[in-house]
Design a protein that fits this description.
single chain, alpha+beta, 2 domains, 5-stranded antiparallel β-sheet, 3-stranded antiparallel β-sheet, 5 helices, 8 strands, 22% strand, elongated, disordered C terminus
């Protein structure tokens, strides 16, 4: 199973001026660094909570269709399913008709279920032979981002700004050290079950 973001959100969940006001940063001399901290804090919290705060497009790959039950989507909240493709017995890419399935967007995590009387097509059982392309997020702008998530991003980015030696930027572009109060918010925002056990 794999999960990659193929289209980034059109806005940050926290604006630059909003963050600078929260962190009490004066002037524009370090805007680039401040924005990097906001993005890093966002990625860090989204990764740990399995959420997407502002709408983005993702691709989720699986080795096979589920024998029974739904396909659980590992980013929440689910907005829509763009397509489901698979490899047939000859290795050619095919697209599952939208008449076969429906997206369940009212639960977290969201899921994809078969419509009544429908079944998944015969697919080659191979590594990442199934690709689900979907949109997840709380909205196309920062307006609908949960307030607690907005505050957590600002507090984490502020902590890193004023304590530059307390974290490190990883290969994912996210810092790894978070203050206790932000960790508490992260635990409350987490969406269960996580990706590793969703479709195993």
């Amino acid at each position: 199973m794999g999960l990659i973001q193929t289209a980034k959100p059109e806005a940050e969940p926290v604006g630059l001026d909003e963050f600078k006001s929260h962190a009490r940063i004066d002037g524009d001399f370090d805007n680039e660094g401040a924005l990097l901290l906001v993005r890093s804090a966002t990625e860090h919290i989204e990764h740990l909570t399995a959420r997407q705060f502002v709408n983005a497009t993702w691709q989720y790959t699986m080795d096979r269709f589920p024998v029974s039950g739904p396909i659980w989507i590992p980013k929440a909240p689910l907005v829509s399913v763009t397509s489901i493709t698979y490899l047939d017995a000859d290795g050619a890419t095919q697209t599952v008709s939208a008449d076969v399935y429906q997206a369940v967007t009212t639960d977290m995590p969201g899921s994809i279920v078969l419509k009544y009387g429908k079944s998944w097509p015969a697919a080659r059982e191979d590594t990442e032979s199934i690709t689900v392309t979907f949109v997840a997020g709380h909205g196309a702008s920062r307006v609908n981002v949960p307030r607690v998530a907005n505050l957590a991003i600002k507090r984490l980015a502020t902590y890193w700004y004023w304590n530059p030696g307390m974290g490190e930027i990883t290969g994912r572009g996210s810092r790894t050290i978070t203050p206790i109060d932000v960790d508490t918010v992260i635990q409350n925002l987490k969406v269960y079950p996580r990706e590793a056990v969703l479709n195993g």
